[in-house]
UniProtKB/TrEMBL annotation, chain A:
Domain FAD-binding PCMH-type: 1-225
Keywords assigned: FAD, Flavoprotein
Listed SUPFAM superfamilies: CO dehydrogenase flavoprotein C-terminal domain-like (SSF55447), FAD-binding/transporter-associated domain-like (SSF56176)
InterPro entries linked: CO_DH_flav_C, CO_DH_flav_C_dom_sf, Diverse_Substr_Oxidored, FAD-bd_PCMH, FAD-bd_PCMH-like_sf, FAD-bd_PCMH_sub1, FAD-bd_PCMH_sub2, Mopterin_DH_FAD-bd
Species: Vreelandella lutescens
One of the Pfam families matching this protein, by short name: FAD_binding_5
Entry annotated with the keyword Flavoprotein: yes
Nucleus is among the record's keywords: no
Recorded superkingdom: Bacteria
Entry protein name: Xanthine dehydrogenase
From TrEMBL, chain B:
InterPro entries with a match to the protein in the record: 2Fe-2S-bd, 2Fe-2S-bd_dom_sf, 2Fe-2S_ferredoxin-like_sf, 2Fe-2S_ferredoxin-type, 2Fe2S_fd_BS, Aldehyde_Oxdr_Iron-Sulfur, Beta-grasp_dom_sf
Stretch list, region Disordered: 1-20
Xref: Gene3D superfamilies: 3.10.20.30, [2Fe-2S]-binding domain
Keywords for the protein's UniProt record, in alphabetical order: Iron, Metal-binding, Oxidoreductase
Residue stretches making up the 2Fe-2S ferredoxin-type domain: 21-97
The name this protein goes by in its record: Aldehyde dehydrogenase iron-sulfur subunit
Length: 316, 188
């Protein structure tokens, strides 16, 4: 790990201002992703700004009937919140499907959104990776590469990595918005599609946050009625990242929402696919996965996604 | 030159011209004020600076649970957190759970049920196991909880799922489950 200086920020605005001003600064919250990457020297910040003391620890009701979740709320606390369990079940389910009890106690709402990909070549510093070193090339697109975990849609010729978060898939289904504060003290509110950026030619740029901009929280709109479910398919039954995951909110009249994890560089959802839900899993996936560009090794994900949704629908 | 092979040597030979911070930790009830290289994880602080070698380093990347300790009453992986981030925190390691003369009921149950072979994962398993029973008592849901709004029952499936962050290379899982179940029953 490279050496770094350390400070504790007392407010989100101070943290953002300091992050813009100090060269090589990065925020640290739970540290469960950043420290892992710093040990590999994939992340090499010169200065860490500890944001856990910025007062963003609460889950509060909004005037619109939804919830505002502070960026420092832990994944355990969010999953166990009574209002979330009762009205946003898909979110509780996605959270407890991720990582381990120990990690969820430390992982924060903001940090979870910004965790980096689990592409094996991103982690292997001996291999070329455009996300790690822009312009170096992509080992995952090389001959004979292992790509079974990697993305099938929304990817580019520069990068086919997926976003690994389970929580973000549920947030996508819930139409959640990410709230931020800029170094100038201005606030912004973004949909997940506006927050996450697809790789294109610059897979090192993963989101639309400005330099120093800090996530202050996530806002859930008023709850959507219906059955909430999250089905995660992985290589072992616990403590593993998703190969494919499906977040489903299914109303009694057959309409609803579907978001996918493990498939794309961001949690994947399309309006046209939601509209096809009354016609069943195949109709949904025809819309949702239109334009997919799988590799030979990960084309199974297209079938698996459809079957995973079909299995969820068959439970009803 | 040989690589440093003891905590003392590693400390003595560590570069001194790197950013350091002073932090006060309360470990197993005793207050310690330390000035550390900012990079020092909580796990290395416990093992290399406080000679509390019960917490183990299996992977150093959050993947095995051997370093599980309790911080302010919650279990975490000590390898994925920095000591400087724990100013004033109360940390309980396996050394604070029980002693050879006065074993904690969970330690006793691990012995009685033969819940280990080499023992390397055991401190983490025991710290996690005690936390698991507290988390179920606090009605915190898990991946296998069928009804998110009902009271959670202690079942084999609940214990297995909640212990999934603690790997055991010797494969003592069946007896670890027995030990935890025994303690849960004693408390019921
Ligand atoms: C072994 C293992 C297994 C895992 N399995 C899963 C899994 O199955 N599913 C899953 O979803 N996740 C999994 N995770 C990932 C885990 O969920 C993330 O590490 C965690 O959510 C990150 O949150 P954090 O608070 O620790 O972030 P940190 O590590 O503190 O930060 C992550 C990034 O976010 C930035 N950041 C943090 N907070 C803010 C903020 N408020 N504003 C702006 N930037 C910020 C940091 O600068 C850093 O770049 C796993 C992790 C491990 C180690
Ligand atoms: S897929 Fe993306 S993250 Fe993986 S090696 Fe290629 S550029 Fe890097
Ligand atoms: S040493 Fe911390 S999880 Fe393995
Ligand atoms: S007893 Fe040997 S690793 Fe668990």
């Amino acid at each position: 790990m490279r050496a770094f200086s350390y400070e504790r920020a007392a407010s989100p605005a101070d943290a953002a201002a300091r992050a813009a001003e100090v060269p090589g600064a990065k925020f640290i919250a739970g540290g469960t992703n950043l420290l892992d990457l710093m040990k590999h020297e994939i992340e090499t910040p010169l200065h860490l700004i500890d944001v856990r003391g910025t007062g963003l620890n609460d889950i509060t009701a909004t005037e619109e009937g939804g919830l505002r979740v502070g960026a420092m709320v832990s994944n355990s606390t969010l999953a166990a919140n009574p209002r979330v369990r009762e009205a946003y079940g898909v979110l509780s389910r996605a959270l407890v499907a991720g990582a381990s009890g120990q990690l969820r106690n430390k992982a924060t709402t903001g940090g979870n959104l910004l965790q980096r990909t689990r592409c094996p070549y991103f982690y292997d510093t001996a291999m070329p990776c455009n996300k790690r070193s822009p312009g170096a090339g992509c080992a995952a697109l090389g001959k004979g590469a292992t790509t079974r975990q990697l993305g099938v849609i929304g990817t580019s010729d520069a990068c086919i990595a997926t976003h690994p978060s389970d929580m973000a898939v549920a947030l996508q289904a819930l139409d959640a918005r990410v709230e931020t504060v800029t170094p100038e003290g201005e606030t912004r509110s973004l949909t997940l599609d506006a927050f996450y950026q697809l790789p294109g030619d610059t897979p090192d740029v993963e989101n639309t946050l400005a330099k120093g901009e800090m996530i202050t929280g996530v806002v859930l709109p008023a709850p959507v009625e219906g059955r909430h479910a999250y089905f995660k398919v992985r290589d072992r039954s616990s403590y593993a990242f998703a190969l494919v995951s499906v977040a489903l909110i299914h109303a009694p009249d057959g309409t609803g929402r579907v978001a996918l994890g493990g498939m794309a560089p961001r949690p994947w959802r399309r309006d046209a696919a939601d509209a096809a839900l009354p016609q069943g899993a195949a109709a949904v996936m025809a819309e949702l996965l239109d334009g997919a560009r799988p590799t030979e090794e990960n084309a199974y994900k297209l079938t698996l996604a459809e079957r995973t949704l079909a299995a969820l629908l068959a439970e009803e | 030159m040989n690589a440093p092979n003891s905590a003392e040597q590693r400390r003595d030979q560590a570069p001194q011209d790197v950013p350091r911070s002073t932090v006060t930790l309360i470990v197993n009830g005793t207050q310690h004020t330390l000035t550390l290289d900012n990079r020092t994880t909580l796990l290395d602080t416990l093992r290399e600076h406080l000679a509390l070698t019960g917490s183990k380093k299996g992977c150093d990347h959050g993947q095995c649970g051997a370093c599980t300790v309790s911080v302010n009453g919650e279990r975490i992986n000590a390898c994925l957190t920095l000591a400087v981030m724990h100013e004033g925190d109360e940390i309980t390691t396996i050394e604070g759970v029980g002693t050879v003369e006065h074993l904690d009921p969970m330690q006793q149950a691990f012995v009685a049920n033969d819940a280990f072979q080499c023992g390397y994962c055991t401190p983490g398993q025991i710290c996690s196991a005690n936390a698991v029973l507290q988390e179920i008592a606090a009605n915190i849901p898990s991946h296998v909880t069928a009804d998110l709004t009902a009271t959670i029952e202690i079942t084999d499936a609940e214990i297995r799922e909640r212990m999934s962050g603690n790997l055991c290379r010797c494969g003592a899982y069946a007896n670890i489950l027995k030990a935890i179940t025994q303690v849960a029953k004693e408390r019921a």
